[in-house]
Amino acid sequence: MSQVVFITGATSGFGRACAHRFAEAGWSLVLTGRRQERLEDLKTQLGSRVPVHVAALDVRDDSAVKAVVEALPGDFRPITALINNAGLALAPEPAQRAALEEWHTMIDTNITGLVNVTHALLPSLMERGEGASIINLGSVAGQWPYPGSHVYGASKAFVQQFSYNLRCDLQGTGVRVTDVAPGLSESEFTLVRNRGDQAAYDKLYGDTTPLQPEDIAEQIFHVATLPAHVNINRLEIMPTRQAWSPFAVDRD
Ligand SMILES: NC(=O)C1=CN([C@@H]2O[C@H](COP(=O)(O)OP(=O)(O)OC[C@H]3O[C@@H](n4cnc5c(N)ncnc54)[C@H](OP(=O)(O)O)[C@@H]3O)[C@@H](O)[C@H]2O)C=CC1
Ligand SMILES: O=CCS(=O)(=O)O
User: Fold this and answer.
1) Which of 22, 25, 121 is nearest to 77 (CA)?
2) What percent of the chain has pLDDT over 90?
3) Which ipTM was obtained for this model?
4) pTM here?
5) What is the pLDDT of residue 13?
6) Which ligand is nearest to the CA of 211?
7) Domains of the chain (ranges plus CATH)?
8) Nearest C-alpha to atom 6 of ligand 2 is from which residue?
């Protein structure tokens, strides 16, 4: 049976790097995200090496999530690894100036979206059983408070606790669960958070050495390919120049 990875948010950053990393190892890929063009580009890049199925998907829409899962071609099930990666931060200002709509978007994406996809794929993961994995993208922001993190950090604290609780329920099924919690990592995440402000992006990453999406993809691949009896509960990863809080970054 082939190994199949289902990735949410595959159109950028960690998700896209995971698509490349798992393809390198010969896994079949199910790639999802809202930007269809980017999904098609990935299919063009990777489809000659491994089987690739793409589906435009907004994880906030639970019926769309169910439909995508139900329409998975037979060669792409059961799923071996689910990478719940789609997510975002918005509203970089303090809570008292943040827009409620942006708080809702973070909750709908980082919490409801992750729950939607997990719920829809649990039967497939259970069918795979031993060696299957759910890998959830949390963040150091789920543990370390900082100004401007308000709902974003709280949504990642949810991801951590949901991952731990899932572990308890899935005990005995062979399905593993890991909360991967990266620190400062260079990706479009910072452009999304700062509404496309390139100066904010350059300021955050320009004079230090952030993690790259490939660093995170390597760790996720490691987690998914450990022997079936090994479960990493939480993996916190920071750049060497960050210790510990999101603001404790060594700069030139
Ligand atoms: N970069 C960082 O410093 C860190 C990021 N993280 C977390 O890692 C994850 C990936 O972040 P990163 O790769 O850096 O960010 P990017 O902005 O590069 O990628 C985010 C991905 O999420 C997808 N996405 C966003 N909203 C939705 C939605 N409603 N439905 C489906 N897909 C969606 C985007 O695709 P599209 O727009 O095409 O839908 C995109 O592919 C996020 O959960 C983030 O919170 C955690 C710690 C550190
Ligand atoms: O999750 C992202 C990392 S940080 O911006 O909160 O430090």
Assistant:
1) 121
2) 98
3) 0.99
4) 0.99
5) 98
6) 1
7) 4-237 (3.40.50.720)
8) 141
